[in-house]
Amino acid sequence: MIGLDEIERLARAATPGEWSVGTLRPRSCGMEWVSSPDMSHIADCSEAVALTEWGLCGRVEPEQIEANAAYIAAANPAAILALIARLRAAEAGIGELRAVLFWAQVEKAPLRQQEIDSIRRVLKTHRALTEEQAP
User: Which of 34, 84, 85, 119 is placed for a possible disulfide with 43 were both Cys, Cβ 3.0 to 4.6 Å?
Assistant: First the structure.
């Protein structure tokens, strides 16, 4: 899996702005592309066949081409950078929770057991997610 820093680097290097999907009418012809706000070409999603690691796997239906183009447009650099910022903020919050839990254990602070259990559940979930995504 690609690391967060690499995804951020790629997003910053890509054409900026929110991307949109262009369609050649009629939609049934399957001509879809993604462009930037200044109408620069980002991606052509109009291939008639899909290529997988096993080779050609047949015709891609116009609906799938349209869905692929919409996904690529939604995963524009601005959206990816916003998601990265949210993830990093959440990770910082986990760090704060760890500090509170450590302080509560060391100082024997009057946290209720329910609060301590809640903090432990959050940390356990975060640890499991982090381990899943490790390269």
Answer: 34
Write out the DSSP string of 34-92.
EE-TT--EEEE---SEEEETTEEEEEPPHHHHHHHHHHHHHT-HHHHHHHHHHHHHHHH
CB proximity list for 108: less than 8 A, separation 6 or greater:
none
Distance (Å, rounded) from C-alpha 125 to C-alpha 114?
17
Cβ neighbors of 27 (< 8 A, separation 6 or more) are: 62, 66
Residues 6+ apart with CB under 8 A from 85: none
Joined tokens for residue 73 = 């447009």
Reported as type and span, the H/E element at residue 20 is strand 20-23
What's the rounded Cα separation, in Å, for the pair 17 and 73? Answer: 10
Q: Report how far apart the first and last C-alpha atoms of the chain are (Å, whole number).
A: 6
pLDDT mean across residues, the chain: 75
pLDDT of residue 20: 83
Q: Mind listing the pLDDT tens digit for each residue in 35-82?
A: 777 777 777 776 544 445 544 555 667 777 778 788 888 899 999 999
User: Distances in Å between the alpha carbon of 95 and those of 65, 78, 114?
Assistant: 42, 26, 19
